[in-house]
Amino acid sequence: MVVPLISFILLCPLAAFAVFGILGLANKRFPRQDYLSTAAMLIALACSFLLLREVVPSPEAHTVDWLSLGNVTFSMGFYLDSVTVIMLIVVTLVSSLVHIFSMGYMHDDPRYPRFFAYLSLFSFSMLFLVVSDNLLGIYIGWELVGLCSYLLIGFWFEKDSAANACKKAFLTTRVGDVGMFIGMMMLFTKFQTLSLYGEDGIFTLAASQLTTGDMVWLSIAGVLIFCGAIGKSAQMPLHTWLPDAMEGPTPVSALIHAATMVAAGVYLTARMFPILTETSSLVIAYVGGITALVAATIAIVRFDIKRVLAYSTISQLGYMMLAIGAGSYVAGLFHLTTHAFFKALLFLGSGSVIHAFHAMHAHAHDDEKHDHEHADDEEYILGSEIPPDQDMRNMGGLRHKMPITFITMLIATLSISGVPFIFSGFWSKDKILAGVLGRAMEWNSIHHYILFVIALLAAGITAFYMFRLIFMTFFGEPRNQEMHEMAHESPLSMTVPLIVLALLSFPAVNTLWFNKDYVKPPQQSHLHAPTHAQLAPDTKTGGTGVALSLFGVSEAVAAEEDAGQGTQDVHGDDGHHGSAHTAHTIAMVLSIIVAGLGIFLSWLFYHRRALSAESVATTFRPVYNLFWHKYYFDEFYDGVLVALTVWKARLFARFDGSVVDGIVNGVGLVTRDILAAFVGFFDNRVVDGLVNRVAKITWAIGGRIRRIQTGAIQTYLFVVLVGIVLLILIFRVL
Amino acid sequence: MTLQHYLVISAILFTLGIFAVLTRRNAISILMGIELILNSCNLNFAAFSRFMTPEDISGQIIAIFGIVLAAAEAAVFLAIILAIYREFGSIRPDEVDTLKG
Amino acid sequence: MEEFTLKTFIFYGFALTTVASALLVVTVRNIVHAAFSLMVTLFGVAGLYVFLQADFLAATQVIVYVGGILVLILFGVMMTSGRLEMRIHIERGQLLLGGAVALVLLMLLLTVIANTPAWKNRIDDGTELPPTTERIGELILNGPFLLPFEVVSVLLLVALIGAALISRKEVRD
Amino acid sequence: MLLSLMIFIPLLGMIVVLLLPRESEELVKRVTLLFTLIPLALAVYLFITYDRSTAGTQFFHGPVPWIDAFNIQYHIGVDGLSVTLLLLTALLGPICVIASWRNIEKGIKAYMALFLLLETGMLGFFAALDLFLFYVFFELTLLPMYFLIGIWGGPRREYAAIKFFLYTLFGSVLMLVAMIAVYLNSNIVNGVAEGLRTFDIPTLITLAATQGHALADSDFQIWVFLGFFIGFAVKVPIFPFHTWLPDAHVEAPTAISVILAGILLKMGTYGLVRVNMAMFPQGLDHFTNGIGFWGNSLALLGFINIVYGSFCALAQTDFKKLVAYSSIGHMGFVILGLAARNDPGITGAILQMFNHGVISAMLFLLVGVLYDRAHHREINGFGGLGTRMPIYTGITTLAFMASLGLPGLSGFVGEALSLLGAYDKFKFLTILSTIGIVVGAAYFLWTLQRVFLGTLNPKYEALSEINGREILTLVPLAILTVLLGVWPNLAIDMFRESVTNLINVLHAI
Fold this sequence. Notes:
The structure holds four protein chains of four kinds.
Chain A: H1 2-25, H2 33-55, E1 60-68, E2 73-80, H3 82-105, H4 112-131, H5 135-153, H6 160-191, H7 202-209, H8 215-232, H9 241-244, H10 250-259, H11 261-271, H12 278-300, H13 305-325, H14 329-364, H15 371-375, H16 379-382, H17 403-417, H18 424-443, H19 446-474, H20 481-486, H21 492-504, H22 530-539, H23 554-568, H24 574-608, H25 613-619, H26 621-628, H27 633-705, H28 713-733
Antiparallel strand pairs in A: 1-2
Helix pairs in contact in A: 1-2, 1-4, 2-3, 2-4, 3-4, 3-10, 3-14, 3-21, 4-5, 5-6, 5-10, 6-8, 8-11, 8-12, 10-14, 11-13, 11-14, 12-13, 12-19, 13-14, 13-18, 13-19, 14-17, 14-18, 14-21, 17-18, 17-19, 17-21, 18-19, 18-23, 18-24, 19-24, 23-24
Chain B: H1 3-23, H2 27-52, H3 58-88
Helix pairs in contact in B: 1-2, 2-3
Chain C: H1 6-27, H2 31-51, H3 55-80, H4 92-115, H5 133-142, H6 146-167
Helix pairs in contact in C: 1-2, 2-3, 5-6
């Protein structure tokens, strides 16, 4: 039942895309592509729910040979465990909602059918990635979602900014993908397979074959595979494409660049969890942590509503990476799920706002084209142009105009900020913090303490900038009266998905994660270098954890945390349980504090106006500039890397044209002119002298002989006959 | 009547043909000379066939082919003569000497 | 020497006619006369073929040469010669040289004929062979000469088309 | 017999075309199409009936004595290595004829006749099993190509044609010398001459593996390997013998570029597999054993091709030149895969040959479509065509994506397998070669952006969408691209056994 079901799930969106492609080639159009794609997605969603029953308890893989060589076979297959199913549901659910949302949002676009076709293709690729049981399959899905992302970011390709953004997205992620591919090559060369599971899978082989001597090698391989995730999940230093990707239509941002594709990196890292070593885990955790912090700081100073969300996404993805790097497998994936819902909600909500402004923007476009550039003083000198319908400085006070959008977005914001207990974001984030702290205490590792602090900071900043967004958009006085007048609540097709997603931001609907039997972290066979195996028991403190029993949920969370930690730790004992509880408690308290602090500051700055953001910015000018310029990553890439590459290309081309080809032409010239000239000289004087003499004689003789050539046939014939007669005389008669 | 009778007749015809080809100043006369030569050859074939291999008549068949070739040759020859006549206004071979060195 | 029968007499008659008329062909000044002499020669050769029991060949000779080629030649004469040129112009020097060479050639040929042993004493025993037409047909159409026959046919066709192409009035395009 | 028919039917077609009157151009084109479709039909039959379970030669014809004095035989047949390329050739034939339907303005009859001759040469080359015959067909392609570029090419056609001709001739002279050396040594065992000399490739392969045979001498193999290698390297083309390629491509008419990239380059790599690898395993070993400079040299050349070709492509502003340089880069993957001498490497290389044939054919056809409309190929001179020509843009995107190695399309499989194989032996070079993947994506996407995205260049507001005939030429290739990307076994089945066999030969030394 499983294989047909998964195949069917994959086939639905693929078929929807195929209809578009085939008709498109015949220069025809299917007028109801939107219904087709949406229906396909809803069916896939229903089937995904059916799979929920199938999977528990044992994971299984189903493979077919895809590419068979003489003695190596690459198989393609489905691997279905609880994580897969959850991912399937997340993807199909968000995708369905985005489809429905787009029916309203994209309705007036001239390329409306194409949009849905691309969405279908994306959904197929993403689902394929999720269900693949081997690295090759994941890589295929990986690149295909990259393609869809490219197509969708560049959906309004008439805009140069969109055209630039899509190219940048594809190329940046490809850099990461190359790293991933090298990692795959390393694994393949070692194990002669790219399948992950089963008897001959990489995980089994790695557990049984590798020795301590291979740890460095395995760490490198792990980090390289993680490079793919860095690219796709927009981690530092390859994060710059994601903010630019906001040039795509907003539903795309919600689906691809918030909920699903960018989370694929986290998913991949989680999939590779069993072969992550201590070193590679630490690298992952640091990359994630730094990304979380840096992106959050950049988000503080953005004014474009979508960019804020984009940086927030990067930051949250970093969080997930941090979790997985710190060994909190379950927490990372949990956060992935909750984040998918609330971030999709935030994007769709911002889309709703933009949509409300959009008609107005089109109207005001002609006469006020560049007005906004002068509206604010020096900040614009520094930066990118923001479309007025996305500029938060044009918003404000929208909560009355767009109540549904406001409430749903508020729920999402509360969730992402980690407001305790009734929002899912709190639980997942708290779990990550607890995991990191737990690891720090368990290993007594300074790295993890640092990471914990980073994570806390990021959490606080997140709360701050998210509320900044809410305050600037929905509270206060309308800043642009004219635009405000025009704003209106969005149609039903757009608000319904918002409401559904808002409901999903409550923990009750994420119960799967609180069932400790449902998702189990896999064994990490190479986590412990020998040193740590000895260190670990000594460092454990016999804490007396007190679990907070709120809604009866946290108990389960804590217990699950134990399960997670326990399976990873060969030396798991009672003392360790204690440390997890302690960590959990501390983390929870601290996270509530920083979230509250962040929200409070935000309230002071942007609602009460007790503090002036401008004055703070002026005071800390260098820091502010750093944030505003996004740490100068783009400048560095454009000014150095891209320029260097293009320069190198030009150099090579010039080298090719002048040197290599020059040599060839030169050889030709040398042969023709110099060599030939020399030979010609020799020829003229020496050889030709002789030849000329001969020729002259020949010519002279010829001049005489040519008289024989009378042109009269009869003369010739006569001579011939005389010749014959003579011959006969000589040979026959004489 | 021996083989040699025929051979002698043939030889005479051949020589006369050669003579015509060598001396005549008119292309058509040359053609006639050639016809004589061809006839002498055919006669030789027929004669040899009769005297050397009485049972086998391959010689006669060759002679028939010879006649056919003669016909073809005559046709092309006359065509060329006509073309030359149009070009030079004459069919005297000594006047057609563009190949003169 | 064999008997001087009527048959021999007729043979010599044919032989003489052939040689004499051939001599006329090469000596007569009027080209039309020459052509008619050629006709006589061809007839003479046809008669000789009869003596060689080559009946089909004789018939072919008459039909093709006399009926075809000779007519062709006469046409050629008419189309190319103005009235003045009906007479064949001969240069004396050329005549002498040509005659000499031809004579030497004749001498040589005769010597060869007389001296080749295999050719001596081949006497026509006078046996009547069956008519050759059927055998020739068999050999040409169903025997070893099929391919040459086809080739010759194509050649003839090509020659005809070629001749027509060469001799047609040029069309300026 | 089937193969002989397939090879010589285009030649027959050439004679027929030559007999047709010059004025009836339409008829000439139709007849040519017919005579290229027949080999295609035979190729389909070949594809269906080919026995995939054996490494041996199939459908052979001969050996029939040809030139007895040198024991040269007419001997043809296909195994897994050649059958794929034979199929590719037969497929591209009619496509190129259709592509030439409208845009050859003068002398269509001569063009078509030469094209048919070219097809005979290419088909024969891939099927030849006698070294001499192989060489004859190799040279046979040169002549029509020279005229096709030199007469129907662009403004600098004569330069390009002569360059192409001389380059190839230079290579083939070395090849000829090596071939004669092989022939002269083919009957020497332990220093004593016995029996007849031979040009027969299967026999030579056996002899080269025989202990004590003159052909099995490793020094001899190295030198002969070099001779053949340079001959084929010019064709591939391998740096630094590549500069004829951009010129030839830029000047050649569309269909000829397609043939050039699709088939002629493959003749080089095919020769490397057929002759250099199979016949001189010790020579190969010397250049690919990974020890020292010479042991890495082949892989190094592959790497240089990839990176150098890609960077050069990035700098081009002429659309066609860009595609030409990308070809150089892609052929680098073939070389790299072959240098790996293992299962994934060789399979990947052969797959890459086939796929590159299909994809580069598409690319050149697409460039041709644009050139026919705009009459220039300057990438920066376009812009925003995506709004004007959506279907064309779609197909181009597909072709670009296939070429830059997007998984799910055929380009990826060959590239990935080559790299996977190569990494086993040449770790450092392979990792460096992956730069080519990024740069490859860069130049294709940049081109895509400059030509199709952004605001529409007002000059091209009236540009017409790709027409049915052009779509007809592209669709089979596009289908093949997707099909082989999704189901690569379809192609690999054809040559899996042959590759295994080849590897056994290579490991036997």
